[in-house]
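COMPLEX REQUEST
Ligand: glutamic acid
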Amino acid sequence: MCGIYAYIGKKRNATSAVFDGLKRLDYRGYDSWGIAVINDHKILLNKHVGKVNKALLKLPKSSIAIGHTRWATHGAVTDLNAHPHFSSDKSFILAQNGIMENHEEIKVNLFKKYYKFISQTDTEVIVRLIEEESIKAKNIIEAIRKAFNKLRGRNTIIILTKDGQVVGVRNGSPLVLGFSKDKTEIYFSSDTLSFAPYVDQTLTLENGNMAIYSEGKITLKDVVTGKNIDLKDEKNKIQKQKVAKGKYKHFMIKEIYEQPNVIRAVIKQDFTSLKKLATQIKKSKNVYCIGSGTAGAAAAQIAFYLRTFGKINAISLIGAEASEYVDLINKNDLVIAPSQSGETADVLEFVEKVKKLKKVKFASYVNMQGSLMSRLSDFKFMANAGPEICVMSTKVFVSQISWGYLLAKIVEGKYKKGINNLIKLSQKINKLLNSKTNINRLKNLARILSRQKDIFILGKGQNLQIIKEGMVKIIEGSYIHAHGISAGDLKHYAITLMEKGVPVIFVISNDEVRDDVINAMNEVKARRADVYLLEDKEKSETSAISNIVSLQLLAYYIALFKGNDIDKPRNIAKSVTVK
Ligand code: GLU
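STATUS: Structure written out below.
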């Protein structure tokens, strides 16, 4: 995952500009951070374990700086393994987002040539490889290019040379450039949001693009051929978005409260584009919905809606386990991926493969602008949910499943009904969020649950993925073990764990499986477990979507009572751009 950032310009102090940028990027990883600046033709470096911390920043003012925030994949979380990594002669320094898959074999070869390694990272192998290429190459740019073409895996790198050149190369993990209005300031970053307030235009690098800053200007090259690419056609006007907690204590709770509006944004989706996708869905033999983590639950819920309302053979996959489907899928099938970032590595790998090998059509529903997934899409949809800053996803999940519901209603031929139901849903969630009684009940339950070691959540049918997502939210935010099971499957195994004092939450809707869930509840009660009920009495096709809001609130308050870092839970990162 990891975040990459750079600033070149005289209007701001590059050191603090990069520091601020890293703060905005640390949702991508917060194992360690590092900043390197140019000072008197020398590169000075600061790097530390933990979250970005002003007290530890001891670098002079500068006009050129690069920075990195790490989510460790290779090598422990130590100061030494933190990025950026110096070349042996300190003439350049490099930070990476990704995994160099062939680092072991290349390292062995470099060892034989007496290169020394001081860290355990794959990143340092890239640094030494560039040094090795420099011996023959006519300049550092050529050396970087040659070395980059030898890397396997998805890798994006940024390099600062002691002469003040900044080079960014993208393959896989995102890299975006930003330009101030008067063009005198240039930013590099892993996302547009982190520099949005300061720039007027952006340029999203494609895979295989190399952006070089040297002596006041940027040039763009194809990393494979080394040929220049025309910059003029590539730049986009930035869409400014505000990022502030406002009256809320955390981004998570703010984002939960934004959900009625997020559903309104789904209602405003362009009907013609949705209709085109619905037609493709009907033409397809199988529809595969794919995602990872929370987006995996969203993909499964979208598949559920397509089966239930559209009567479509929709299958859900999780990114990490999708590879065995590559052989089964063919060009009469369709892949749909909901994603917050549009950069999830395992999903992207699957999509790239099936598009290339099997010419499969692909639809995406993404929240971040300019993502790789959007660009690969035959049918592209933007969630327009606004920036989601909390590492745990809430509003984007609700957006994804509301979109899936609407899509399924269009496939069913009931667009109007779908829209009306979403309008009602938005009002209902608004009420739920503003009901003091409701919130107090959830808080009381959260207080009890925050003292538990295991929490069970049971549901069925439309609520099956909802309880799974509720489980994900509790695990992520409170570090308590949670277990989401189909209420019907309970008696096949987990019933052995039901005994006095075990907390079990039942999520129930007023639908055809209600009685089954009530039966399971009675079985659990008979074993004297502590049963809690989250019930939606209203008969509604979108009941599951309002139920997840209650579970999100519950997870938020449990994490709050535990005193955890809610917006940045330990060990995880928001956009998983490595496999
Ligand atoms: N492989 C690099 C490391 O472990 C970067 C990891 C990443 O991008 O998540 O330091």
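REMARKS: Residues 1-2, 29, 70-75, 96-99, 121-123, 578 surround glutamic acid (CB under 6 Å). The chain is about 35% helix and 25% strand.
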